[in-house]
């Protein structure tokens, strides 16, 4: 399971966020973006030593300052369930990797897929055929041949 899937599932639930500097923030998650920036409401901030507490209506925490997050077990269960359902819906064999729609290497299949004049396809490359910019259809170094 990806961390962002877990965080998106935690919307509206209480979370504990510990920062790299030692401060902790307890609050209800309002929003989380792809950089793991987090917006909390009804926040209690605890200092690094644990001797000072601050109550705030809301807090915005930048993702790269986060050391770890603690979420309730029910959020973990919901995220696992959602991940499982998503995997069931995904069709087998589709998606990433090689493969495709057939035709083999080079694109257009058997007939009509070549490059030069004699192969029945579009012109191209530097040799004979294609749009070379010259009247003979050739590119650099093309000669009249018998």
Characterization of the model:
The protein is α+β, with helices and mostly antiparallel strands and 146 residues long. The protein has a domain at 3-89: SH3 type barrels (Roll), CATH 2.30.30. It has 2 helices and 5 strands. A 5-stranded antiparallel sheet has the order 4-3-2-1-5. Strand 2 (24-32) and strand 3 (38-46) form a beta hairpin. The radius of gyration is 30 Å and the shape is elongated. It starts with a helix and ends in a 57-residue tail after the last helix. The mean pLDDT is 78. Its main location: nucleus. GO terms for molecular function: RNA binding. Residues 79-146 are annotated as: Disordered. Residues 92-111 have a biased composition (Gly residues). Keywords: mRNA processing, mRNA splicing, Nucleus, Ribonucleoprotein, RNA-binding, Spliceosome.
**Mind telling me the C-alpha Rg?**
30 Å
Structure class: alpha+beta
Sheet having the most strands: 5 strands, antiparallel
β-sheet strand percentage:
25-35%
Spatial separation of the terminal alpha carbons: 67 Å
Tell me the total number of β-strands.
5
- Strand order of the biggest β-sheet: 4-3-2-1-5
Uncertain runs? none
The CATH architecture classification of the domain at 3-89 is Roll
Give the fraction of residues assigned to helices.
10-25%
Q: Shape, please?
A: elongated
* Number of H- or I-type helical stretches: 2
CATH class of the domain at 3-89: Mainly Beta
Mean pLDDT across the residues is 78
What is the helix/strand order? HEEEEEH
CATH topology of the domain at 3-89: SH3 type barrels
